[in-house]
Amino acid sequence: MLRASLEDAAVQNNPHTTLITATAPVSPDTHGGRTKCLQRLVRLDLPVPRTVGLSFEAVYRIARGEMPDMALLLSPFEQGELLCVRPSSGDPDWGGPSAILNIGMNNARFDDFAQRLGKETAASLYARFVHSYSLRVARLDPDVFDEIGVEGEASLNAALRAYEEETDEPFPQDPAVQLAEVLRSMARAWDGTSARLLRQGKGAPADAGLGLVVQSMALGFGEGECGSGVLQLIDRETGLEQLTGRYLSQSQGRDALEGGSKALFLERDARGPSLEELAPDAFRSLIEIAQLMRLKLREEMQVEFVIENGRVHILDGVRVSRTSRAAVRSVVRLAEDKIITRQEALLRVPPSALNELLHRQVDRSVSNDLIGRGVAASPGAATGKVVFTAADAQAAAARGESCVLVRRETSPEDIRGMHAAKAVLTERGGMTSHAAVIGRGIGLPCVVGATEMRFQMRKKLLTVSDGRTFKEGDVITVDGTHGEVLSGSVPMLEATLDDAFQTLLSWADDERDIGIRANADTPADAQTAKMFLAQGIGLCRTEHMFFEDDRLTVMREMIFAESSEDRSAALKRLLPVQRADFTELFRTMAGLPVCLRLLDPPLHEFLPSDHAGHRALAEALDIPLSDVTRRVEALSEYNPMLGMRGVRLGIKVPEIYDMQVRAIFEAAISVTTPEMPIVPEIMIPLVSAKREVELVKMRVDIVAAAVRAETGVDFDYKLGVMVETPRAALRAEDIAESTSFLSFGTNDLTQMTYGLSRDDAGRFMSEYVAQGVFAEDPFHTLDVDGVGELLILGAKRGRMARPGLTLSMCGEHGGNPESIAFCRAAGFDYVSCSPFRVPVARLAAAQLAILDKLG
Ligand code: PEP
Ligand code: MG
User: Fold this and answer.
1) pLDDT score for 855
2) Which pLDDT band holds residue 251 (cuts at 50, 70, 90)?
3) Confidence tier at 411 by pLDDT (50, 70, 90)
4) Is 541 in the pocket of ligand 1 (CB under 6 A)?
5) Is the distance from CB of 833 to CB of 769 less than 8 angstroms?
6) Of 410-419, 531-540, 714-723, where does mean pLDDT reach its minimum?
7) 829 — pLDDT class (breaks 50, 70, 90)
8) 225 contacts: CB under 8 Å, gap ≥ 6
9) What average pLDDT does this structure show over 140-149?
């Protein structure tokens, strides 16, 4: 007793090699999460075997050859005790080298164990250690040891012989030498390049440290019930209360010594006697321990235990590894049980984890056949037969077949095909390309910019980098969450918007202080936005309404009109259609604000691009084919993104905006009630000069006056400007004079600030990011330095003209947590993002507000 306490003191005086006691100076930042957790278990008075923690610093030194005082390190342990070493990184998710068990096994211990436990058991213990030492520490050829078993004396002797033959040395017998070599190999494994890259991929900082724990082994051998296992109180898939785990009794086999799982006594499909039957007291005490750990460690924990003669030893406690769905349910239950606060619950779920709940996902625990990669443009996963045209996608859907639409890139003409498909794969494009924006908007999994695959559209062939080809009708899976394309169909995890998800988000809404709206173009989008409790529509791209079959022809007639009369006749036919669209949007949103952007794209986007399409159009409009091709040519531009689009179109062909504005007003009047007055927000796209706004405003006011006069109903509306050109941001002060809101369209603003085509950037973006030219794809992550400066400048100048000016962001960045942080700091009123990103944005915004409150 005296000896032990003196040794403890000696160990405790060394801050880098610390006996884990209730008061030892250890923290997750110096010794890692496992060490700290073990200390908590000690503080709870749980039967934890003696453990010494090595700090990050100690392990760092070991990796460089500076070994700790081994005698001091071993001093707290009994002579001849077997030890194990486990990793203790800052975050359990960052991983680390796996544990090495049975250190201290040697010829003398073998004799000793053989007498107590029998030769077979002793030989297996020793053989397992020789195996792991040879492979993990001495780094010997695994093929040699693959052929040697780990059971029984013959295997032991073969393993010892193999070790000696490979190293020209006998197997080390001194426990101090064994331990030193184990520590060295684990420290070096953490330092290796691939381990570093792997953990950085999981979010670890480049210089993340590793702690190690050296623990005496509870072996689980003896007369009474002996064995080892793990136990937890929840189901890792659902997070629902469910006692789960595995236990291997020594009477059934020996695999548990290496963490094997042959006998799953606690699982539902278990065969054989359960732990409850074998050792009822130990079983009850384990459940109590798990409950205590949940209460005191404030987390759903997995208990790792050994039972020795019916007595429980707790080797470790780790947070239950679980799906995002289970994580959400766990934190909600912990908060409902008042173990953690609601704020803590909100902070514990990474916003991006919600994507897993919102969309079907590829089950990544199963290995799959990866055939290509691209930009992860819209989350979720789907399987289907390959089709190469939008028409084929519609035909497949009509036959009730799931299909994946494969295109070089998509255009507005593909919209219906996209709706019909289960997923989209494109060769070109980036985060704000057409396919990506539409995909996110309608919750369609989408991978774009898959440049390593060969898209042969005429031949209807997709060739992947290993030479395999996929033809029309072959089945592939698109994983839009990870930007991967897989061969065939794969196991999926279903989306689940359960009550825990809704509860967590309602708590988020209580905390957050920036508005979240949705970009919704159709009543179906609006329904989704409403379902996810968006606070309104921040951007309705009205052009998308014109791509339905019945409207497209009328729209084309309008574009082909030779005279103002013909044009107004076509527009008259479009008016009731638009009015009906807007009416439905206002109804769906039930009084929440709806911001409608006037027509933005160049007119030729509404025209067919190929010969067959031109002929069909000539037939539909009953005009000569040559007229169609001439008109299409006349409308084509060298650089349509910088050409006759947005407000320029509104000024050149003002009748289009007149019609849209009238439709908006008439729809608003028809839905308005005294309890639910509709105040539509009308937004002018691609503005670069104050005069543009004045001209449009003048006509909008005239239409409003006319509608008021015709209907005898008064109504309000708001007119705003979409800031998408650098000049609009720079001149925000005078532009704001005639507007009540500014909404920053960061897709075009990024395109124009960088002079970088949003549709072509995908071709070289990955190279640019890989070479560090851009830290991230600026279409994905807001460029705070450049585009961000324009946002701040525009916001400041706009509010100089109008202090109460409403400010928002509606580009695709709007749903990113970093962009939300930026907008919040810049004093924006709301962000608007794709409907499926609304929950992520609600949670991210709540976390920012909480972190501010907590200081
Ligand atoms: C934008 O440019 O940021 C925007 C929202 O508009 P669109 O993506 O339709 O060009
Ligand atoms: Mg735009």
Assistant:
1) 86
2) low
3) confident
4) yes
5) no
6) 410-419
7) very high
8) 249, 251, 278, 279, 282, 307, 309, 310
9) 85
- Burial of 670 by CB count in 10 Å (0-12 exposed, 13-18 middle, 19+ buried)? middle
Q: Which two three-digit tokens encode residue 713?
A: 């109903």
Sorting pLDDT into bands at 50, 70 and 90, what band is 191? confident
Q: Is 745 in the pocket of ligand 1 (CB under 6 A)?
A: yes
3-state secondary structure of 262: coil
Cα separation, 855 vs 424, in Å, equals 44
Is residue 202 classed exposed, middle or buried when 0-12, 13-18 and 19+ CB atoms within 10 A define those classes?
exposed
For residue 307, list its beta bridge partners. 227, 312
CA dihedral 364, 368, 371, 373 (to 10 degrees): 10
Cβ neighbors of 347 (< 8 A, separation 6 or more) are 847, 850, 851
Q: Which ligand is nearest to the CA of 433?
A: 1
Q: For ligand 1, what atom is nearest to the CA of residue 541?
A: 9
292 alpha carbon – ligand 2 mean position (Å): 55
Atom 6 (ligand 1) nearest CA: 745
**Is residue 461 exposed (0-12), middle (13-18) or buried (19+ Cβ within 10 Å)?**
middle
For residue 768, the one-letter residue type is Y
Beta bridge partner(s), residue 312: 307
User: Is residue 178 within a helix (H) or strand (E), and if so which, with residue range?
Assistant: helix 175-191
Q: Does ligand 1 come within 6 angstroms of the Cβ of 539?
A: yes
Report which of 528, 651, 668, 563 is spatially closest to residue 599, judged by C-alpha positions: 651
- 819 pocket-lining for ligand 1 (C-beta < 6 Å): no
Q: Pick the catalytic residue from 595, 810, 823, 833.
A: 810
Residue 381 CA to ligand 2 centre (angstroms)? 27
Q: Would residue 434 show up in a list of annotated catalytic residues for this protein? A: yes
- The rounded distance, in Å, linking the Cα atoms of 473 and 555 is 34
Residue 572 confidence class, pLDDT cut points 50, 70, 90: very high
| Three-class DSSP category at 515 | strand
Residue 607 has pLDDT above 90, yes or no: no
Distance from the alpha carbon of residue 641 to the mean position of ligand 2, in angstroms: 9
Q: What token pair was written down for 62?
A: 């070991």
Residues 6 or more apart from 391 whose CB is under 8 A from it?
417
Query: Contact 101/132 with Cβ under 8 angstroms?
Result: yes
Q: How far apart, in whole angstroms, are the C-alpha atoms of residue 183 and residue 476?
A: 46
d(CA 109, CA 126): 9
Report the chain's terminal Cα–Cα distance, integer Å: 47
The string of pLDDT tens digits covering residues 719-743 is 999 999 999 999 999 999 999 999 9
The response to whether residue 528 sits with its C-beta less than 6 Å from ligand 1 reads no
Residues 324 and 481: beta-carbon distance below 8 Å: no
Chain centroid, CA 375 distance in Å? 13
Determine if ligand 1 sits within 6 Å of the CB of residue 747.
Answer: yes
Residue 218 DSSP class: P
